[in-house]
Amino acid sequence: MDKAFFQNKAAQESAGYAKLKTLVADEFENARQSIRQMLQGLGIVHVDQTSSGKGVIDACRAHRYDVILCDYRLVGNKNGQQVLEELRELKLLKPDVVFVIVSAETSRDVVMGIMESQPDEYLSKPFTQAVLARRLERQFKQAKALSKMKMLLAAQKYTELIKGCLAHINAQGRYAPWCKRTLVEAYLATKHYSQLETLCKQELQDRDLDWPMLGLAKMHIEKGDIDLAISMLEKLLQLFPQTISAYDLLAQCLEDSGKTEEAQQVLEDALRISPRIHKRQKHMATVSMVNGDAQSALKASQQTVRLGANSIYENPDDYIQLVDIVAESSDSSESKQDQKRLLAEASQALSTVTKRFANNDRVKLRKTLAESRLMASQGYVREAQQSLSMAKTLASEMDGGMPTEFALEYGKTLYGAGEKEHAEAVLSSLVNDSTTQENLRQQAADFLDEPVSSAAKAEAKGLNKEGLSLYANKDYQKAVQEFKKALALSPRHPGLNLNLVQGCLKLMESEGSKHYLITECVEAFKRLQHVSERHKQYKRLVALREYLAKNYKTKV
């Protein structure tokens, strides 16, 4: 090939680039100027510049850029990853924009976080004009070929998108792999499960691939086949352990199946690979608290707040969750100094909520309720009641009074401030209301079952596990003793109480009727008066109660 051919090709590309509108963002002026000169050398005329994340967002409000080269490190509080996430959330980017994150970062955590945000390109500093030219040329070709389909995807016009993708695939287009992945998303959105299954299984005939397996797992979830989804995701992660999104999906499936300890383990694996994702850390904090692992929950909650600060994902939930976790975990701190530090962190979180969401009355109400729970956890009953009283006043000034979506937080706050009967009424109403969201109903039921500290929950859980092991080995006497120790820590827990009842009944099968064992059973049932027909342990409770009444002539 002769030199004239390449010169002609370069001239044609330069002429095409001249119409592109470009933005360069870097904290250092000399770096911005260097990249600007590279772009102009490629024939790009219009090059705007900024040094801050806010500058990028403001510029994108004013202009529709074709290319954005954004450094990870920027002036101000936002980094390049947060900027990209915010621009997408605010829909300030053209569907076919080429967004390039530029970075000199070498930390694996940072790089993995950047890659999870899925920029169109990632350029590691330093780079040459030739490298930049090759990367941009590749992206421009793809953007031109897929522009219409990306527009359809952004507009959620899936029927037309499916036709376009299939046409490109049938024509053996260069970007068929992109089209196939996009088809999975389109088929899921339109519930065309048979087409999705056919596509994914065809791709898996010759070799294992991550994206078809992920697509099938998502299909199983959509169809309610959670066990099949779990099986597929576990296989996927065995073959492709770096497929980070599969960890999040698997953890959610396991949690929805009640396997919260397994869900936490999966999230721990994911966080070892990529810890700088806000949603993942928040999920870890939530699941850890359900499992009674206060220290893991605290660490994840702290990370959630840090990652959310100055990002589009920042919200009052993160700060209030941190306050509640500190309230539940501070008593298990190794030293008074650690406890003091945690309480200071919780106070700072409350202060931040007040500042960041100053004009939001609903947030102010939630903050006051959280403050009451924190005070109650430290034994400051009078201060807890004062904050609760203030919250009631704030609620009374709102249209309709206390918002129904705050009923869970309100019930927990009432309980901590000593208004236990009122708390049970509020939470029981939440559990028994058919319009309550399932996750809120479950959280309310869980609190009614076990309104104790995370440390107490964890210890009770361990004793219960030991009791179940003894029960399995038919050592019913010792099993009953372990269950009683657990109940001393968590007296209202249905599973613990019913385990005790079963242990007592097994003892009486071999030793005959014993008054003290019958009394243990009766007292256990009295502790479970809060268990309603909706509770997952209700059928078991009724069966054991009827068995006791029938075989031992005991009125319960």
TrEMBL record:
SMART domains for this protein: REC (SM00448), TPR (SM00028)
Keywords for this protein: Phosphoprotein, Repeat, TPR repeat
Residue runs in coiled coils: none
In-chain residues carrying the UniProt-annotated modification 4-aspartylphosphate: 71
Residues spanning the membrane: none
Stretches forming TPR repeats: 244-277, 460-493
Biological process terms in GO annotation: phosphorelay signal transduction system
Keyword set includes Cytoplasm: no
Gene3D superfamilies, per the entry: 3.40.50.2300, Tetratricopeptide repeat domain (1.25.40.10)
Annotated InterPro entries: CheY-like_superfamily, Sig_transdc_resp-reg_receiver, ST_Response_Regulator, TPR-like_helical_dom_sf, TPR_2, TPR_rpt
Signal peptide: none
Protein name: Response regulator
Response regulatory domain boundaries: 21-140
Lineage: Bacteria, Pseudomonadati, Pseudomonadota, Gammaproteobacteria, Oceanospirillales
